[in-house]
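Hello,

Our lab assistant flagged a job as stuck in the queue for most of the afternoon. It eventually completed. Since we weren't sure the result was trustworthy after the delay, we are filing this so someone can double-check. Below is the sequence as submitted and the structure that was eventually returned. Let us know if re-running is recommended.
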Amino acid sequence: MSDVTRAQHGRPVHHWRRDLVELAALFTAVAVADGVANLIGHGPDGPALLAISAVLLVATAGFHTWWARRHGHAPPPGDTGARPPSEGRAGGLPAADGLPGQDTGGSEPLAGVEATVLLRMRTTVKDAPGSLAALCTALARLRVDILSLQTHPLADGTVDEFLLRAPAELASSEITREVARAGGSATWIERADAHDLVDAPTRVLGLATRTALDASELPLALRQLLGRCTIRSLPATSPVSGRATEGAPVEGALEDTVMRLRAPEGGVITVERPYLPFTPTEFARARALVELDARLGPRVPRGQDMLTLPEGNPITVQRADVSDLEAAKAMHERCSPRTLSMRYHGPVGDADRYLNHLLSPSFGRTLAVRTASGRIVGLGHLLWDGDETEVALLVEDEWQRRGIGMELLGRLAAMAVEAGCASVYAVTQASNTGMVAAMRGLGLPLDYQIEEGTLVITARLDTTPAAPQLPYAHGHAQHGTATGTTPRD
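-- returned structure --
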């Protein structure tokens, strides 16, 4: 019985008149039933009639129930079956449109949906029919979904590389044991992310495009192609000792966990991954990227930013390379011996020997500050140093204390964040208060260490989301300093 007909001020309103009518009808029905029962019950066939009536009523009720279930009820006129969305979410879309186990931006997982993680797994199996099938069956028993598969043929087997979606509570050790039972050996597992969902050919083409646009992208492309590894670029001649560096064969060399590739400028690129041997397929891909870089020759993006210093002087900031070597040497000649010694930590006469190494895109990225006449008055270097990244600054004496050093350092840190670097370090002297102040001006967590009488300042880039929006690339230079660091050999 429906007793709610409308709502007023958010509360249900009852019809008291309808309640009285229904109550009167109930009493009337009871009185009529009592009268009929007395009339029939006192007759000669009263009990029989009551029993027959009860059977007929039960049969009628049963027939009505069967008919209702078979044919149902037609919707009321104008009812299309649509229902308004619930109060908890907007209409038109389901509450959660992500895949099971997919991160939906920090929301709670749906009830009944199993939380999953992405994993990269590599294992070696015998090159025999059915070996891959056994491996897939073992993963299926653990409720692990195979998203992609790459095979790396070897002389005595095959390395299978999987991208997996596994239950979050499933331990990597359990996967390793099950894979070993299925015939896999030398199994390696690590967490993956959404970027690994891109198939291998697409990822390689993207890395080749980045390398073609900017020569300094080659070490970063190799690292993304090969995963966790240490990449070192050695010049053909050491800028410190002047001795020639042992080169690599033209076709490169692969030795288990180390590959050596001939660098485009004549040096050598060493890639090391001690925890996992390289496969011939990986070696071929890395060599193809290096050959592409060598064929395209030196190249850097030539865009520039126009800035105005606080006192009104216009300057430009743009990428530099070995084609700017003579202009950089001319800046060295205008710098004081003290500025050069604080920058290079060595004999002033050796300063020019560093420039060819520092300006080469193979070893990092260089920013040059130019005046309106085109003269270089400041250089900032972002240098790839194995697993680490170094920043170094040099500003001409007359242009120091105008914010150029701070501008360069902020842009270099933003480049490091874009390249996926976790930190940058600067090597300077404790007396170089300008460089210390510039590093502190980044607003990032800093670590200080003394190494062989020099101060090493490390800025951690992966601890703050604000790092990519550093304020030094917004069009106006900030007050700062200019002298800086020297590269490690």
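-- support follow-up --
The delay was a queue issue, not a problem with the job. The result is valid. Residues 1-14, 72-108, 463-489 have pLDDT under 50 and may be disordered. The radius of gyration is 38 Å.
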